[in-house]
Design goal:
By secondary structure, this protein is of the alpha+beta class. It has one domain: 2-Layer Sandwich (Alpha-D-Glucose-1,6-Bisphosphate, Chain A, domain 4). It is built from 2 helices and 7 strands, in the order E-H-E-E-E-E-E-E-H. The protein has helices spanning 14-21, 117-139, and strands at 2-10, 34-39, 53-58, 61-71, 74-79, 86-97, 100-110. It has a 7-stranded antiparallel beta sheet with strand order 1-7-6-5-4-3-2, with helices on one face. Strand 3 and strand 4 (61-71) form a beta hairpin. The termini are far apart.
Length: 142
């Protein structure tokens, strides 16, 4: 099992960050990928929340992710169909600290046979670090 984690304190409220992170169609401003909602959230869930399925295209590979939990303090999602990684779980926690929020982004998964674990770990670590750095710069461009 591969596990990567990155943490960043951002000058924004948990609600502001949550709203940005479930705005799937515009996540390309933080990730080097394109996102398209292919199934809306379940009834009585926030827009983009639990039950939402998004199609991601990254480095020419297209795959699906499902939001399995979405609240102001935590977002959980998983890759469907065990492709391009197996047993994937992404967890983003939002912890308020005054005018700031500490965002912790964790990804756990198993590497497929054709992709060495050390390479996948590096790719995922770079991806979540870049995402949170861009998110931080969005709220505090100085």
């Amino acid at each position: 099992m591969i596990s990567v984690q990155y943490q960043k304190t951002i000058l924004a409220t948990p609600d502001q960050i949550f709203t940005k992170l479930i705005d799937h169609e515009n996540l390309n401003q933080f990730f080097n990928a394109s996102f398209k909602v292919v199934k809306p959230q379940n009834n009585n869930e926030p827009i983009g929340g639990k039950g939402c399925v998004r199609q991601i295209t990254l480095l020419g590979i297209t795959f699906l992710e499902e939001i399995i939990h979405a609240s102001e303090r935590e977002i959980r999602y998983r890759v469907l169909n065990n492709f391009p990684v197996k047993d994937h779980l992404g967890v983003i926690t939002l912890q308020p600290h005054g005018k700031h929020t500490t965002v912790t982004y964790t990804i756990q998964c198993n590497s497929p046979w054709y992709l060495p674990g050390v390479l996948l770990r590096r790719i995922l670590a770079n991806d979540i670090r870049n995402c949170l750095d861009k998110l931080g710069a969005f709220y505090d461009p100085s």
